[in-house]
Design a protein that fits this description.
The structure holds two protein chains of two kinds. In chain A, strand 5 and strand 6 form a beta hairpin. The model of chain A has no long low-confidence stretch (mean pLDDT 93). Chain A has three domains: 266 residues, Rossmann fold (3-Layer(aba) Sandwich), CATH 3.40.50; 92 residues, no CATH class; 78 residues, no CATH class. Chain A has a six-stranded parallel β-sheet, with helices on both faces. In chain A, strands 8-5-6-9 form a four-stranded mixed β-sheet. Chain A contains 23 helices and twelve strands. In chain B, the strands form three sheets. A six-stranded parallel β-sheet of chain B has the order 1-12-7-4-2-3, sandwiched between helices. Chain B has a four-stranded mixed β-sheet with strand order 8-5-6-9. Chain B has a two-stranded antiparallel ribbon with strand order 10-11. Chain B is built from five helices and twelve strands. The longest helix of chain B is centred in the N-terminal third of the chain and has 14 residues. Chain B is 26% helix and 22% strand. The radius of gyration of chain B is 22 Å and the shape is elongated. Classes of the chains: A alpha/beta, B alpha/beta.
């Protein structure tokens, strides 16, 4: 399993906020995905209706997941593919190595698979003495940088500047240092082209498994998944049990949502629907096709209060629009999935006690729910996990005491009004002439990185009472 | 517990049992399966964007949006001359001049065309990796997104659309359909089963993985040119 660092969110976020290079890189891309998404939505006459349909498709699949899984298995098997089931990360790696051994594969090329990040599959492959090459440009950059973890689910290396990539290529490829992004891409293309042509096996993820046909749907812009499933003699598609969709018509609907929500494109450049091994007389295509359908905690999510998170189609819109993600970047989250969806899934997959800060790593501004193409109520799910942390005694003593105290005071309106007035007066006394508080007793965690604005002076209750009185006077 | 590829049954059964438990089900439910079959048979579609009557015009506009280029020609006989005209009009920097080669490969359906008469050297074979130019037909094309649809088969080698620097695809006007749904319907009508691969390609291979700057020709073709035969 991929090393879990999600318990260190606070410390890591702090480091990332003070990382000048990263902050510069994040500033460069800030808002790009947001603007492109917005521009692409107008092409759909009924975007909200399409979101409703997307939600219904994903929920229909989850509500009878066992039925759709069996239908998928049956149809894929009929077409000559082998459908395997992995219960945990270790089993994913074991099955992949079994397949490689069975077919005598020495070199494996991979297109992006987040599920294989969960199981740290590349390390397992290398540990078995085989070669593995990531072909998604972002993933390739991370692989040759000693397997740096991805920071974004669709742009895994977006935290890196072109200068950093140029240094990396120069060092690892031993070629003259390139300046332009174009030249860097051409260099990577040349290196990877050779790997495509002589790899024995291709591993891909799966954006969707289609139940009615027993197919996998692969979506890329680079075409790397298409090449990885066209040239090697073995293809292994790995994805989670929740990625099932019933029909091809459902794929058509979801494909109106996925690229627009992800990169603001009307369609991704390459969309492949692959069904079984190659037919008679076919020159290209895999002779052997395997599916690995992965649980790894998903069935637990299905039976939990956050089950709606399984509707996710991994577009990344929630993180692109999240003010916390935009400032700390993906690495702070400490595991495979960053951003709001990661803050729900990571605690479920690695244990809530190992990811205590993640459900808190949100202002609950609600933007993630506004943009989610399958209407996952992310703020509600985060709140449910916060509740669970409280109920299971997982929050620090000081926070629990403070909340209890607040709850006690809030029960007495008079006392509450008096104490808030007192608190406001106290906070204003701490503020400098600019109205900002630089240092807050008991709140140094807040003020060590930034100043806190002092309250405006009067409480909501005071203002409300005053307006009500005024309204009473003016009405007949 | 981990299983092997020869005996994965225990994991399969345990996984399905856990899913059923999570859903509060006792076991396999024949009625749920009948409902699922009925849903598949109903072929329900989601909301569709409005499409104009002239699908070909829409397709050409959308294909251009996706960075494909387009030439309209009157008949299949005009294909070799159109290919030559396209190649000669390419303005490539000296470093990439080799990509402007007048030789390449094509699918068997274009074997009878007079390539040499147009000054081109086109071989009828699947690409093996270092061909500069790949000429293919397509199964159909999708107007909504400017997409070319390719089905794998003995006479439609997949990699010819992927490996060459330049991919030229011939699209017949009558094969332009409205959306992905119509492409799937056409596959159901014309093919006995789903082919191994349905590759839907919209413009050249691209990446935005470095600083979100779009670069064409990430792994596949640098350029996709469409010859629309009216």
């Amino acid at each position: 399993m991929m090393q879990v660092a999600s318990m260190h969110f606070k410390e890591r976020a702090h480091v990332k906020l003070n990382d000048e290079v990263l902050q510069g890189n994040l500033r460069k891309i800030k808002g790009k995905f947001v603007a492109k998404r917005k521009a692409s939505l107008v092409e759909l006459d009924d975007f909200e209706g399409t979101r409703d349909a997307g939600r219904a498709i994903r929920q229909r699949a989850l509500d009878n997941l066992d039925v759709w899984l069996e239908m998928f298995e049956q149809n894929a098997t009929e077409r000559g593919a082998t459908v395997l089931f992995a219960q945990n990360p270790a089993e994913i790696n074991k099955l992949v190595l079994d397949i490689a051994t069975h077919h005598g594969a020495r070199k494996i090329i991979k297109s992006k698979s987040m599920v294989s990040e969960e199981s740290a599959l590349d390390h397992a492959i290398e540990g078995a003495g085989l070669k593995v090459v990531e072909t998604d440009l972002g993933e390739y950059i991370l692989q040759i940088n000693d397997y740096e973890p991805p920071s974004h689910i669709i742009g895994p290396a977006l935290h890196k500047s072109k200068e950093e990539v140029a240094d990396l290529f120069h060092r690892v490829h031993g070629t003259p240092r390139k300046d332009g992004i174009d030249e860097l891409c051409v260099e990577a293309r040349g290196v990877l082209r050779d790997h495509y042509l002589n790899a024995d096996m291709g591993i891909t993820g799966g954006n969707f498994f289609v139940a009615e046909t027993g197919s996998v749907v692969l979506v890329t812009n680079e075409g790397n998944a298409t090449l990885a499933t066209t040239l090697p003699k073995v293809h292994v598609a790995i994805s989670g049990i929740e990625k099932i969709v019933p029909t091809l018509e459902d794929v058509a609907t979801l494909m109106r949502l996925l690229p627009r929500s992800a990169t603001g494109q009307s369609i991704s450049n390459y969309v492949d629907i692959l069904t079984g091994p190659k037919g008679r007389g076919e020159y290209h295509g895999a002779e052997h096709m395997y599916f690995i359908v992965v649980d790894s905690g998903r069935s637990d999510v299905l039976g939990s209060e956050v089950r709606e998170a399984l509707r996710c189609i991994r577009c990344g819109a929630c993180m692109n629009h999240c003010p916390v993600y935009q400032n700390v970047g993906g690495h702070a989250y400490g595991w495979v999935y960053p951003g709001p969806i990661g803050s729900v899934l990571t605690p479920m997959y690695v244990g809530l006690e190992n990811a205590l800060d993640l459900p808190q790593a949100s202002t609950l501004c609600g933007q993630c729910a506004v943009v989610c193409p399958v209407r996952i109520p992310l703020p509600d799910l985060l709140r449910k996990l916060r509740e669970r942390e409280f109920v299971e005694d997982l929050r620090p003593w000081s926070e629990r005491t403070a909340l209890r105290l607040w709850a006690r005071v809030a029960r007495y309106p008079g006392l509450y009004a008096w104490s808030t007035r007192l608190a406001v007066r106290f906070l204003r006394s701490r503020a400098g002439s600019n109205g900002m508080i630089e240092k807050l007793p008991l709140g140094s965690g807040w003020t060590s990185g930034r100043a806190m604005p002092a309250p405006a002076g009067r409480t909501f209750r005071d203002l409300y009472a005053e307006r009500k009185a005024a309204a009473g006077k003016s009405s007949p | 517990m981990t299983t092997s590829i020869d005996d994965n049954r225990p994991s399969r059964d345990a996984l399905l049992a856990r899913v059923r438990r999570a859903l509060g089900k006792d076991g396999a439910d024949p009625r749920a399966r009948a409902d699922a079959d009925a849903y598949v048979a109903a072929r329900a579609q989601g909301p569709r964007p409005a499409m104009p009557v002239d699908l070909v015009a829409k397709f050409l506009t959308r294909a251009t949006d996706m960075a494909s280029t387009v030439t309209r020609i009157a008949s299949a006989q005009a294909i070799p001359a159109a290919v030559l005209a396209y190649l000669d009009a390419l303005e490539l920097p000296a470093a990439l001049a080799a990509q402007n080669a007048h030789h390449g490969v094509c699918w068997p359906e274009f074997a009878a065309l007079d390539w040499s008469g147009a000054g081109l050297h086109i071989e009828v074979r699947p690409t093996v990796g270092d061909d500069r130019l790949g000429i293919t037909g397509c199964f159909c094309a999708i107007a909504e997104t400017g997409t070319l649809v390719f089905l794998s088969g003995a006479d439609t080698p997949t990699a010819t659309t992927l490996l060459p620097d330049t991919h030229i695809a011939v699209v017949r006007a009558g094969r332009v359909v409205s959306g992905m749904e119509e492409a799937f319907a056409l596959i159901r009508v014309e093919c006995a089963t789903m082919p191994r691969a349905v590759n839907m390609i919209s413009g050249p291979s691209r990446t935005g993985d470095i600083e979100q700057t779009i670069v064409l020709g990430a792994h596949g073709p640098y350029r996709v040119h469409i010859l629309l035969v009216d």
